Every structure is written in structure tokens, then in C-alpha cells.
Amino acid sequence: MAPRGVAIPDLRARLFDAAERVLARDGAAALTSRAITEEAGCAKGVLHHRFAGLDAFVAELVLDRYARIAALAEGLPGRAGTGEPVEHLSAVAAAVLSLDPGVVGLALTRPEASRRIRDAWQSGAPGFGAIQASITAYLHEERRRGRLADSLDVDSVGLALVGTLHHLLMTGWGGAPDPREQVDRLIRALVGTV
Predict the structure, then answer these.
(1) Residues 6 or more apart from 66 whose CB is under 8 A from it?
(2) pLDDT in tens, 150-161
(3) DSSP code at position 173
(4) What predicted TM-score, i.e. pTM, was given to this entire model?
């Protein structure tokens, strides 16, 4: 543990990573502020000092994980004209599906955390809406360049892909088959190529 009064580098990331390990190993019922700080090797009160309770921590954890994927998706329009559209979309889909189902499910079991997440997304925090906007902008650009059919309804494709990813995240469970191959087939069916 760090001595009292000494700042811990990357404390936020350290706590988030520790929470994911606790969830993966022991399940949602074991996720307490004490379990998280013990896993992170921090003083017991540091989580409550940094966050306004466990619900605020869980909300920030979920928002952080979605923000990372939204940042990855944000780069999609800049990749238009390079590589294969299916590969670019599959990479973003794989990133979404790599979210820990325990973390996603945890927010559903904690009403206050869920409310905080919804409020943040409604206020513009990056989530599924930002991911969809990036995918749609990318598809528009690929269609403009002639790499996708002019008749392709890119707005519907973006919605269908993000809706499918959301469904798979919300209904996934430990031991379920990896859905990435199925998602790749869906992307090929939705996008096609010229």
C-alpha cells in the first residue's frame, strides 16, 4: 500500500481493473469497496474518497469502458478508403463484445448506477450513440467513395449493427459461444461490397 498522503499513479485505472478481476473471479455479489481496494492494494477508504460511493464507482467504470470503445470507433471515418469495410467494422464490433459481461450486467443490478449511466449518456457521455454515429459516418464515407453500394441504407446498417451488439452484451453469459463469427457474418450480410 502507498504511504498515507502519497498520490497513487493511475489510481482510477487501478481500481477499475481490480473491480473487473473481482467480478470475473467472485461474481457481482462479491463486489464491495473493500474487495476492490484489497484487490488493487490500496487503503480501504480510497474508493469512497475518490468516488461518491460504490454506485458512482460502478457507473464510472461502465462509462469508462464505453468511452474507450467510442474513441476507437471515432477513428473509423478516417479509415475510409483503406482496408476492407467489413474488417474495420468487425474490429469495432470485437471491441464492443470484449466488454466484460460482468461489468455490463453489474450496472443493471444497481439501479443508482444505472441511473447515473443513463444520465451521463443523455448529457453526451460516449456510449452506444457515439459508437453508432461513428459507424454511420464511416459507412457514409465508404459509400461516397464508391466502396459500398449507393443503395445501401447506411443509417439502418449502423443501427442494426449497434442494436445487435447491444443485444449480445445484454444477453451474454459466461460460457456462451463466442458471437464474433456470427457478428462478422451479419456485417457481411448488412454491408456487402461493391
Answers:
(1) 99, 125, 126, 127, 128, 131
(2) 999 999 999 999
(3) -
(4) 0.82
